[in-house]
Write a structure and sequence with these properties.
The protein is an alpha/beta fold and about 500 residues long. About 50% of the residues lie in helices and about 15% in strands. The strands form three sheets. A six-stranded mixed beta sheet has the order 8-9-10-6-11-12, with helices on both faces. The chain has a four-stranded mixed beta sheet with strand order 3-7-4-5. The radius of gyration is 31 Å and the shape is elongated.
């Protein structure tokens, strides 16, 4: 039987596409990834966020896991397991720095015992829980078989026997001014039990630790090491058994248990992001994904990076809808500056990309196509080159995109060709859109050129303006262009915008 994975249906490297860094930054996904990876504390989380899938079955595999994790009892069990495994692995990584052999063996034994408790707690916690996903069902079957196996039973009983032997040791310690004497206890009062009893009221109300919680520190004082050396001479048998057993169990972590614990970090890191924004009233949904174009419909979507940036502010990001059906493949977005067009373009790309990871997307409802690549062409204002050189660079980049474009490619153009004359920009824009149409690619083009929205097969969407010309609704609606976008662009170009005129009058 193939070892289970909660991330990969048929192997990690089966079908992944590496996105370009420009696309990640154009869509502000780098900010989203940083937020998610920070909560996961693992480089593997960031790597997985940059590995979109190319097969809808692989996407559905992860989608099923997210659905199972929506049940609080399932998520709680697996989060506890993942957290406990992380705790154990952190302690094990620090073990090599422990110099004293008795201390190192005892810590190793404690970590092994915590691992056994973690695996047993997981097996019992998942027993009888309803699981629908293929990933979690195969994972539970593996855990059941592993816990019932002779190797794990031997580790569990071995740890218990050695710890029981150490627990039978009773000794007394007498400290004079310059001398410490350690002897076998002979009917002396057990002050350790008395101290625990006295301090018990102060522990009331504290949260119980998980199965992998380890209360011992690897930082041991030299005086404590001296005490252990004395005890090992007084009670050689239990200490010798501990040292021998610690050596024999070696690397006790099961590689599959360890790997899957790391895989769960991808889900829980993403779910923490959802928890954070859902508490503010923002919605997420698991999208329907198709391998080829079969209609696209997204409702109540918003820019995830903007939602994170504005976290804590009173107003929530404006949500928008869009859909394509039949022969529709291209959306042209027009409207005034600062009206939310670029935000809409980023949202469009984010929904498409996050769906390809098998993750929930920032929307109320989403049905989208699984892209074989997302190509972005955003205006790079920071480039200090002349207009002719900038246009040449844009055309070269777009030509490369068109050479690779298929009927599963998504292309997002934001204010492209704005460096050239209006007539030339319109002519170039028409040719580019016709080539995209010929390849049946999905495209969104943000532009001030209203004429492009009237081309055959193009869906026109317009960024809204309020009752006053300076007000922006940030709603992008499906309707014919009204001619105002170019007028506003000209007004801005010649310093004749509403704000500019008001400033002049006020002087």
């Amino acid at each position: 039987m193939r070892p289970p994975s909660v991330l990969w249906r048929e192997g990690e490297h089966a079908t992944t596409a590496q996105p370009g860094s420009a696309m990640i930054s154009d869509l502000n996904l780098d900010r989203v990834f940083a937020e998610i990876a920070a909560s996961g504390g693992s480089d593997s989380v960031d790597r997985l966020l940059r590995a979109p899938l190319l097969n809808s079955e692989d996407v559905e595999y992860r989608r099923e896991v997210f659905e199972d994790l929506s049940a609080p009892e399932v998520r709680a069990q697996l989060e506890t397991f993942s957290r406990s495994m992380g705790n154990i692995r952190r302690h094990l990584s620090a073990l090599s720095a422990v110099r004293h052999p008795i201390v190192r063996s005892r810590l190793h034994l404690d970590f092994a015992s915590a691992y056994c408790r973690t695996a047993l707690s997981l097996q019992r916690g998942l027993d009888g829980v309803a699981l629908a996903s293929r990933g979690l069902r195969s994972w539970r079957a593996y855990v059941n078989a592993y816990v019932a196996g002779a190797e794990f039973e031997g580790l569990t009983s071995g740890c218990a026997d050695v710890l029981a032997g150490l627990g039978e040791i009773r000794y007394s310690m007498r400290i004079d001014e310059h001398r410490m004497v350690i002897e076998e206890a002979s009917g002396a009062t057990d002050y350790a039990a008395e101290v625990e009893r006295l301090f018990q009221p102060f522990a009331a109300g504290r949260a119980a630790g998980g199965p992998g919680d380890i209360r011992r520190s690897t930082d041991v004082h030299p005086v404590e090491e001296r005490v252990l050396d004395e005890l090992a001479q007084l009670f050689p048998l239990p200490f010798r058994r501990m040292m021998e057993y610690s050596d024999s169990c070696g690397d006790f972590l099961d590689p599959v248990i360890e790997r899957v614990a790391d895989e769960f970090q991808f889900y829980f890191s993403y779910l923490q992001l959802i928890d954070k924004l859902s508490d503010r009233g923002l919605e997420f949904c698991l999208p329907e994904v198709t391998d080829s174009f079969d209609g696209i419909r997204v409702e109540g979507a918003y820019d995830l990076a903007l939602a994170l940036k504005s976290f804590g502010e009173a107003e929530l990001p404006v949500a928008n809808d869009y859909h394509l059906s039949g022969d529709e493949r291209i959306v042209v977005v027009t409207g005034p500056n600062q009206g939310g067009k670029s935000t809409f373009a980023r949202m469009f790309g984010q929904v498409t990309y996050l769906a390809s990871l098998g993750c929930p997307v920032p929307a109320r409802y989403a049905r989208t196509m699984l892209a074989d690549g997302i190509w972005t062409h955003f205006e790079r204002r920071e480039q200090s080159i002349d207009a002719a050189g900038k246009l040449e660079g844009e055309l070269t980049a777009i030509n490369e995109t068109l050479e690779h474009a298929t009927d599963r490619t998504v292309i997002i153009l934001n204010e492209s060709f704005s460096s050239t004359a209006t007539v030339d920009a319109r002519h170039i824009g028409e040719k580019v859109l016709r080539k995209i149409s010929g390849r049946k690619s999905i495209a969104l083009f943000v532009t001030f050129l209203d004429e492009l929205s009237g081309l055959d097969g193009v869906v026109s969407m317009v960024a809204g303006v309020g009752a006053e010309p300076t007000l922006r609704t940030f709603k992008v609606e499906r309707k014919p262009a009204d001619g105002r976008a170019y007028a506003v662009a000209l007004a801005d170009q010649f310093d004749l915008s509403y704000d500019a005129v008001v400033r002049r009058v006020a002087r």
